[in-house]
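Demo today. Your pick:
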Amino acid sequence: MEAEQIAVQALTRDGRPWQPSYLLGIDPEVCIGCGRCFKVCGKTVMTLKGITGDGDLVGLDDDEEILRKVMTVGDPGACIGCAACSRVCPKNCQTHGPS
């Protein structure tokens, strides 16, 4: 039996409707690995990874030669849908949406 996805809608402190916008993905072709999104996220949703010459994502501690760093979604279940990460991203490389 699959769990049913239910869109969450809440109210702000003064009663205005608000719907979470969860981090769904980060485009590694656009991300520059600056870490701004990581710094603003209080839930440790993202993880910095390296991209090899073959285009593989690897951990920064791996012995692979890394061409550049990019942010990835490491723990999507921890996202609370505040979208603060998208507001600080200089490259607009993130995708957000309902759960």
About this structure: Residues 36-40 form the longest helix (5 residues).
